[in-house]
Amino acid sequence: MADPLSIAASCVGLLTAAGATAKALSAFIRDCREARADLTTVARELADLRITLELLRDDSDGGHLPRPLQAQIVSIVDSCGGVIHGIDAALERHRGRTGPLRWAVDGKREVEALRRGLEAYRGSLSLAVETVTLTLAKSIKNDTEVIRDQTQTVPAIKNDTERILEEIEHLRISLPGEGPAWSINARLEEYLDGLTSYAETVCDEVVWESEEEEGEPSNPGDAPTEDGSSTPRQPDEETPDEGEPPSTSEPSALECHGCGSSTTETDGPLQLLRCGHRLCDGCIHARFSASMLKESTKRPRCCGAASVSPGHAARLFDRQFKRRWDRKFGDRTASTVTCPTAKCQRRRRIMVDNWKRELIQCGGCSATI
């Protein structure tokens, strides 16, 4: 099992390796001027990585982090060290008088692939720093003496959590879905899933606890006084004026899990998902649109619990978008059936319409069934 000391030790070791690689980059650029433009971005990534590692090392008091997440952070740090060693090896192979020629042939492409991996790991570690900061803020919130003087802590934690989740999704989309870096991406996907679950757990705990501590009076009929205390409201006496309609209290507004908007701020009602959260039409539309990007390989998700059913977005997109989405993420029947179209008459797997859960078209001729 990983512990905070192992996280700090891993960061110190990677800081040393990153510093040595930065010096090796400068020396290589002096010998091979043609590689200057290619290695400038690598040097910038190393500089950003060193700053991130210093922050993670200083804030690695991970007693509040789950053990599996601590182990994944150590694994990401170690894997990032492997990428740095790969950069060192690539630079060493392209030294000498024939170095510039061999660099143009294959070295440039090799180091660029390593730079993309370094960027992905650096972004993941940056999110780890943000999560550690979120954990420290939550521990401060749990101190009831401090929360009385810092009433802005809970909204700040909620906003920071939403920003972290957005950055996680952005990093997840930016990962290539195929190629030699697939094993790296699979490791990062597992790490991002754990980071997402933990961040959402922290946010939910803070929001629910804050509602219990700072919410409305326990008795709905109690009215707050000027000094903040609540006094029981006496029942209204009957008045002879019966022309006034009885006052009705408005129901509490629900909030969108994605953007935080309430039902009064959105065009339509919030839709309840299988995970228990609610999303507005704008957030659902944005998630399904992002899933059609070339880099995206997964169905739209609200959180780590379950994906968003296409039925929630059926009225938000036209038929052309739905067909393109089905071609990328659609399901097909397990058994083959004969297409009734006279021109086809072949046994094919019929595509399942994810938007209505009906069998609608042949997978070969696209004829409507």
UniProtKB/TrEMBL annotation:
Listed transmembrane segments: none
Alphabetized Pfam families for the sequence: PigL_N
Location of the region described as Disordered in the Swiss-Prot/TrEMBL record: 208-261
Sections of the chain in a coiled coil: none
GO molecular function: zinc ion binding
Keywords from the named record: Metal-binding, Zinc, Zinc-finger
UniProt protein name: Azaphilone pigments biosynthesis cluster protein L N-terminal domain-containing protein
